Amino acid sequence: MEVGKKEETTMSQVSDMIRKMFKEGDDKRDEGLTTPDNVERFDDIVYGSNPETQSLDVYRPKGVSGTLPVIISFHGGGWVYGDKERYQYYCMSLCQHGFAVVNFTYRLAPEHKFPAPLEDMNMVVEFVLKNAQKYGFDSDFVFAVGDSAGAHMLSIYACLTSNEDYARTYPFGTPADFRFKGIALNCGCYDMTVNEDTLDSTLPLMKDFLPEEGTPAEYRKISPVNFVNKYFPPVFLMTAEDDFLRKQAPLMADVLLKNNVPFLYRYYKDPYEKLSHVFHCNMKLPQAHKCNKDECEFFTSLIHD
C-alpha cells in the first residue's frame, strides 16, 4: 500500500508543477478583467453529478432575444489543469460576436483518467441539445472551440461524432445524428505518435492522463489524425510563430486535405508582439481579439453557406 502511494505521488509531480505554473500565469493574464457590459451570464449550472468538476456557464449577448448559434469551449491546461473561471473572458469575447457560448469545467487527470474529459464533453453536448429552448441555443448550429489539450480532446470528440468505427471503441455513445457545424482547433496536438521535440514537454503528462500511462496502442487511439474522415466537421486551424506545438498543426492540415474536409489554416505572427502558445486567450492583446474575430467569422460563414 505504501509503495503504491509513493508511486502515485511521483507520477503526479509533473501535474502539480503544471498546475502551479499555469495558475500563476493565468492570474497575471486575467488580473483586472471584468465581465463586459454587453454580456449576460448564467453561471454555475451543474451538468453532471459533481458540481465541483462538472459545471458550466452560459454567456449571451445582452439584450438579444431569440435563438443564437452556440459555441462550446473545451478548455486547455495539459489535461491536468483548468476550469471555466480561467476561460470566462476568452469565452465572453466570442459571445460578443453574436454567439451563445457554453464554458464548462470538466474532470482532470490524474484524479480522473482518459476518457473522463470526453465523457464530460458528451454530457455538455447533451445539455445544449436538451436546453436549447431555455437558453436560446440554435441546435442546428452548434460549434466548438478548443486550445492546447482542449483542441486535442475536441478533435477526438469530433472524430467520435463522425467516425462510427472509432466511436465503437468508447464506452459511451454520442447523441444520435449529432455533428458539429464547425470547430476551431487552436494551438493543439493531434498526433501523439510522432517523434518530434515539441512533444517532449507533453508526453510526460500522459502518465497521469492515460490508464496504462502511455502504451503505443493508447498513443494511437488518442491521435485524432488517425481517425479523421470525410465526415469530420469544417475546421478553423490555428497556431502561431512562438507556439511550442506549431509543428502539430500541419499534421492535422494534411489529414484534413486528404479527406477533403473544409478548413481555414491561420498562422499568426506579429513583428512587435511575441505570439506564443494560446495567445488568443489573453484579452489584453489586440492580436487575441483579431484571432477570435477571425474564428467567429469562420463560424458565421458556415451558417450562411
Written description of the protein model:
By secondary structure, the protein is an alpha/beta fold. It has a single domain, classed as Rossmann fold. It has helices spanning 2-11, 13-30, 84-95, 116-130, 132-135, 149-160, 164-167, 206-209, 216-221, 248-258, 286-303; strands at 39-46, 55-61, 68-74, 100-104, 137-147, 182-186, 235-240, 263-268. Helix 4 packs across helix 6. The longest helix is centred in the N-terminal third of the chain and has 18 residues, at 13-30. The chain is globular and about 50 Å long. Residues 1-10 have low confidence and may be disordered.
Task: Identify the notable features of this structure and list them briefly.
eight-stranded mixed beta sheet; alpha/beta; single chain; Rossmann fold
How would you write the strand order of the largest sheet? Answer: 1-2-4-3-5-6-7-8
Low-confidence stretches: 1-10
Helix content: 25-40%
The best one-word shape is globular
SSE arrangement, N to C: HHEEEHEHHEHHEHHEHEH
Q: What's the alpha carbon Rg, rounded to whole Å?
A: 18 Å
- In terms of DSSP E residues, the strand content is 15-25%
> Would you tell me which CATH topology applies?
Rossmann fold
Quantity of strands, as a count: 8
